[in-house]
Design a protein that fits this description.
Elements lengths: L8 E7 L4 E11 L5 E9 L5 E7 L2 H17 L3 E2 L3
Antiparallel strand pairs: 1-2, 1-5, 2-3, 3-4
């Protein structure tokens, strides 16, 4: 079985006129039971934020979910953080 190379995605959306400074992080992690989880973390920049985990049967479903979330957030104005 081939392993997919899915990296973590870190996005921000800053709009000073609307007092908006948000972050959104998405990553894929294996579980102890052979499944894959998509971990999401979001909130206002400078805070701990909130988190959510959704588990999928395999890495292909998890990668598809990550890409879908990434596309949705970019459509809403989020941009990737460059290191």
């Amino acid at each position: 079985m081939h392993s997919l190379e899915v990296t973590a995605v870190n996005l921000i959306h800053v709009d000073p006129e609307r007092n908006m400074a948000r972050f959104y992080g998405i990553e894929v992690q294996p579980t102890l039971f052979g499944e894959m989880s998509v971990l999401r973390n979001w909130g206002r920049i400078g805070t701990k934020g909130r988190g959510m985990m959704v588990t999928y049967k395999d890495e292909y479903q998890a990668a598809a979910a990550l890409l879908k979330l990434d596309k949705q957030k970019r459509r809403r104005g989020y941009v990737e953080v460059t290191a």
